[in-house]
Write a structure and sequence with these properties.
By secondary structure, the protein is an all-alpha fold. It is built from seven helices and no strands. Helix 3 packs parallel to helix 6. The radius of gyration is 23 Å and the shape is elongated. The C terminus is likely disordered.
């Protein structure tokens, strides 16, 4: 009986010592940054979904679907990194695409800011138009700019946080979710 009691007490101390530990201050800070980026990406996805719903077919629709696909990939990469840090998986939490490139991230951020200003200007121009070929061309150009912005943001996230490049499997899964539905006459 005494031996069993001693064994139980020792096991309790061993098990509690091996339990989950809290995140370090560095991991907490990184997780907060990633959650901020994830919230921004979710907001971008909402806007892209709204844009995609406004167009039913054509070039603009395909560009919006591609943009939505890129944003879904960004969300998956961020969520995977957050989950890996929370689980304490040091292997998955470490960059697999190479080291973080802070200088590259700064350049990408500068390009993103420039692109956002250009998009705002193009949106102002498009708001003045009501119909016609010029409006269609402006909308196509705007959709292309937004798609490029989404890809630039993906490159920024990869450089800033050392996220791995999206794999073909993830890209295909995200594309299936966002691909415009084909209507067939039967």
């Amino acid at each position: 009986m005494k031996k069993t009691l001693i064994a139980c007490v020792i096991s309790v101390f061993l098990v509690t010592g091996c339990g989950p530990k809290g995140l370090s201050a560095e991991d907490q800070k990184l997780t907060e940054q990633l959650k901020t980026e994830l919230a921004q990406t979710d907001s971008d996805i909402s806007l892209a979904t709204k844009d995609a719903q406004q167009q039913s077919a054509g070039l603009v629709s395909e560009l919006n679907a591609s943009r939505l696909n890129i944003l879904q990939e960004n969300k998956q990469m961020l969520q995977q990194k957050i989950d890996a840090i929370a689980a304490g998986d040091k292997n998955k939490a470490q960059p697999t695409s190479g080291k973080r490139d802070v200088a590259g991230a700064a350049q990408a951020k500068q390009k993103i800011d420039e692109m956002q200003a250009g998009i705002a200007e193009t949106e102002k121009e498009a708001a003045k138009l009501t119909e016609g070929v010029i409006l269609e061309l402006t909308q196509a150009g705007l959709a292309a700019q937004k798609q490029t912005l989404a890809k630039m943001r993906q490159l920024y996230l990869m450089d800033q946080y050392g996220l791995p490049a999206p794999t073909a499997d993830n890209s295909a899964a995200a594309q299936e979710k966002t691909a415009p539905k084909k209507v067939t006459d039967k």
